[in-house]
Amino acid sequence: MSKIVQFGKDCVGELRKVVWPTREDVISSVKVVVVSTIIIAFLLGFLDAVLMAGVNLVF
Q1: Quick check: is 8 in a domain?
Q2: How many domains does the chain have?
Q3: What is the DSSP-derived secondary structure letter of residue 20?
Q4: Which of 37, 42, 52, 54 is the one with CA 20 to 30 A from 18?
Q5: Count H helices, E strands: the chain?
Q6: Is residue 11, in this structure, part of any structural domain at all?
Q7: Would 33 be classed as within a structural domain?
Q8: Which domain holds residue 55?
Q9: Helix (H) or strand (E) holding 50
């Protein structure tokens, strides 16, 4: 039982060392992820349309 309690104390100690991001950092990271996702989605959609047009020409 003492090992479980020690593990809990160690976890709390390690979490106190963590440097949490600021609200502004989180918001800017979310913006980057959303914009990147939208750009990749458009590129994949365009590539899919081009490949489908190519397949339709062949068959």
Answers
A1: no
A2: 1
A3: P
A4: 37
A5: 2, 0
A6: no
A7: yes
A8: 20-59
A9: helix 23-58
Cα 4-6-7 angle, rounded to 5 deg: 65
Residue 1 in domain:
no
Structure tokens at 46: 């365009």
How high is the pLDDT of residue 31?
98
Q: What's the pLDDT tens digit per position in 25-56?
A: 999 999 999 999 999 999 999 999 999 999 99
Place of tokens 């190519």: 54
Whether the pLDDT of residue 59 is over 90: the answer is: no
Please report, for residues 16, 28, 44, 51, 58, the alpha-carbon distance to residue 48 in angstroms, rounded to integers and kept in the order given: 48, 30, 6, 5, 15
